[in-house]
Amino acid sequence: MARIRLENISKSFANHAAVKDLSLDVKDGEFFVLLGPTGAGKTTTLRIIAGLEKPSGGAVHINDANVNDWGPAERDVALVLQQYSLYPRLTVRDNLAFPLRSRVRNMAPADIEKRIEYAARTLRIQHLLDRKTDRLSGGEMQRVSIGRAIVREPQVFLMDEPLSALDAKLRESLRSELKDLQMRLGATFIFVTHDQVEAMTMGDRIGILNQGRLVQVGTPQEVYSNPRDTFVASFVGAPAINLLPGRLAGNAAVISAKDFELPLTGRPEGEGAYTFGIRPENVTVESGAPVEARIHDIENHGIEKIVTLRVGENFVRATVPARVNVALEDAVRFGWNPDKVMLFDATTGLNLRHKAA
Amino acid sequence: MAVVSTRSGRLGNRIAIAIVIVITLIFLSPIYWITTTAFKPLVQATSVPPSIVFEPQITPFVKLFTKRAQLTAPVAPEVYEAAPWWERLVLDGGERLARDGKGNVVFSAYPDRFINSLIIAITSTILAVSLGTVTAYGFSRFRVKGEADLLFFILSTRMLPPIVVAIPMFLMYRAVGLNDTHIGLIILYTAFNVSFAVWLMKGFMDEIPKEYEEAALVDGYTRMQAFFKIVLPEAATGIAATAVFCFITAWNEYAFALILTNRRAQTAPPFIPSQIGTGLQDWTVIAAGTVLFLIPVAIFTFLLRNHLLRGMSFGAIRK
After folding, report:
1. What is the mean pLDDT of residues B57-75?
2. Rounded Cα–Cα distance for residues A33 and B21 (Å)
3. Residues B91, B119: one domain?
């Protein structure tokens, strides 16, 4: 098992910088998620760790050895991709055996059989072993490609959006399966995804990338409740956080456009332009609340409703229990939990009350 | 509505099938013509209107494989009686077979030329396809400096009709002693075909997801092993299609073979018309030579037909 350390990694393609000055320390046995939108540099970072790309600058360490000059085979990492991850023309069994038959490993056929047997049992794909890969469903394919990683007993599992091509139900079940597998193997996982739900549910820690930069690293709880900037705040969490432009007036937030005031707690930061962040679950809709709004939209999610409130030009999302009865264009009053308000600099987007982890 | 559209659909299908049959017949008619000519008696080969009904004979093939001379006087009956059946066919036509000092029948050069054709076409096809595959892989997978210019340059070698360079080629080949050698034609045909092979294979290579090889690299294989174990089997369809085209080009090439060879390395295409004879034009022998000459390409294409069909629809299915 292994610890992965990236030191000031950068990578440029032609004149486009894909990864900028990225440093990261993934602990042994950790399930680490790299989260970010498309083009953030997640996959490039993963490929640099795998040895499929050479970094333009910086160093990759596996277990304190600088592996910059090592090829992918020498790094002993396993890679699971979103698609095209299985060798066509081969059966499932041959796919699982393929990495073991490499000259680097030089394994006895009996040992190969044992490993295949173990991996197949772990992933419940024994019945598929003699099937050709083009006769598999999407979920089965991804199981097999995870199996191909497992048989190798590698130092690190690298996964590049392995669940993204699957349908929602399957994704959900494989999500918990993967997490379960990682805990049983005690292996180091680096998991790339653009899906914040995957990141929040599976990751021990999450690294959030934006435009090639690592914005924040932290546990799911930390990035959710203590985001470093508006990007992280809005990328993590569904329904998304409310970001409202405004200014400070004493101990209150004044939301601009059609001004309305809401109370704040904590040390005042001084006058100026701010962005106030409040998660929908911290917005309260009740009769005694300070601000009046109209119901703009209602989404029913079973145990709760997400209502969008309209105040002048601002829209505020709030989660309310399902039993609350509201209709479109109803006039309601809302407030927020002043303890949960996040204060961002209006120009840089940085969280002014961010506590360094 | 549905019934009507089905009916008209069926009618449309029938019309389409009829058109396909007509076109097929048009395309097959030259092959029918040359094949029947190869089995016709000499007089019927050029008769107008062409004879459809005739008594097939294999005299043209006997003539193709032998050397003959005009009979100046009728053969003696006992000689005719002693001759084997296939020699009588020639004697009936007013010719006698040439024999060497020991009385053995002298064979024509056709088998040699045919074998030359096979050697040269097969070798140059293997070379062109291998070079093309490797080059295309390089262009497809690695960032090559000036890739677009290089690819254009490779293609540009085909923009000129090859015959334009025939005279300089002849002089060059004479200077370096490649005239009338197998290796000379092999080099030439490989050079023609390699540009085509690179372009065709590049398309096929681009279609193979590079994720497969990367997975193999991570799984502990070298780039070379990944190429042979993963890329080549995936590219089989493209290789087959490219090979067929290269083989046909090399097999049918006439002009350079005519100019650059005369004996040792002459291929079948320039040889066949040289059998037209003196005095009277014996089209049946030409036809016989041509029919035999068609067979290898037909077999080769037939063997690779599955790959070819998949090759044609490659990409269309996947994307």
Report:
1. 86
2. 62
3. no
Give the whole-angstrom CA distance, residue B91 versus residue B78.
13
Locus of tokens 């009979």: B71
CB of A188 closer than 8 Å to CB of A4: yes
Q: Quote the tokens at residue A198.
A: 């995957």
pLDDT bracket for residue B87 (50, 70, 90): confident
Instruction: Please give, rounded to a whole number of angstroms, the shortest distance from the CA of B188 to a CA of chain A.
Output: 37
Are both B136 and B276 inside the same structural domain? yes
Tokens of B166: 């025939």
Q: How far is the C-alpha of A281 from the C-alpha of A336, rounded, in Å?
A: 9
A-chain CB neighbours of B217 within 8 Å are 51-52, 71-73
In a domain, B280, yes or no: yes
Which parts of chain A have pLDDT scores under 70?
Answer: 1, 257-259, 266-269, 356-357
Establish if B103 belongs to a structural domain: no
Task: Tell which A residues from 138 to 177 touch B, by Cβ distance under 8 Å.
Answer: 148, 152
Cβ–Cβ below 8 Å for B212 and A104: no
For residue A268, what pLDDT is reported?
62
- Could you give the number of structural domains in chain B? 2
Check: CB of residue A164 under 8 Å from CB of residue A194. yes
Q: Does the residue B105 lie in any domain?
A: no
Q: Is there a single domain that holds both residue B225 and residue B86?
A: no
Cα-flanking dihedrals φ and ψ of residue B132, to 5°? -60, -45
Model-wide pTM > 0.95: no
Q: Which residues of B touch A48 (CB under 8 A)?
A: none
Residues B201 and B91 placed together within one structural domain of the fold: no
Tell me, what CATH number does B269's domain have? 1.10.3720.10
Q: What number is the ipTM of this complex?
A: 0.78
Kindly state whether residue B129 falls inside one of the protein's structural domains.
yes
Rounded-to-integer distance, Cα B260 and Cα B125, Å: 19
- Each residue's pLDDT tens digit, A59-117: 999 998 999 999 888 888 999 988 877 888 889 999 999 999 988 888 899 999 999 99
| Record: contact B218-A148, CB cut-off 8 A | no
The owner of tokens 């892989």 is: B137
What DSSP line would sit under A195-229, residue for residue? -HHHHHHH-SEEEEEETTEEEEEE-HHHHHHS-SB
A13 touching chain B per CB within 8 A: no
Asked if residue B181 and residue B72 are part of one domain, the reply reads no
Interface A–B counts its CB contacts (< 8 A) at 56
Find the helix packing angle between B2-38 and B283-303, rounded to 10°.
130
Pair (B183, B93) in one structural domain: no
Contact at CB, B222 and A73, closer than 8 angstroms = yes
Q: How far is A102 from chain B (nearest CA, A)?
A: 6
What is the domain extent for residue B78? 66-97
Domain match, B305 and B271 both: yes
Residue of B nearest to A75 (CA): B218
Mark which of B58, B76, B97 sits at the end of a domain: B97
| Distance, CA of B223 to CA of A59 (rounded, Å) | 23
Pair (B221, B306) in one structural domain? yes
Show which of B97, B120, B139 is a domain's final residue: B97
Q: How many CB atoms lie within 10 A of CB B148?
A: 9
Query: Cβ of B219 and A148 within 8 Å?
Result: yes
* 3-state helix vs strand vs coil in chain B, percent to 5: 70, 5, 25
Q: B216 pairs with which residues across the strands?
A: none
- CA-to-CA distance for A186 and A156, rounded, in angstroms? 10
Contacts of A50 in chain B (CB under 8 A): 214, 218
The alpha-carbon gap from B153 to the nearest alpha carbon of chain A, in Å, equals 24
Say whether B215 and A50 touch across the interface (CB within 8 A): no
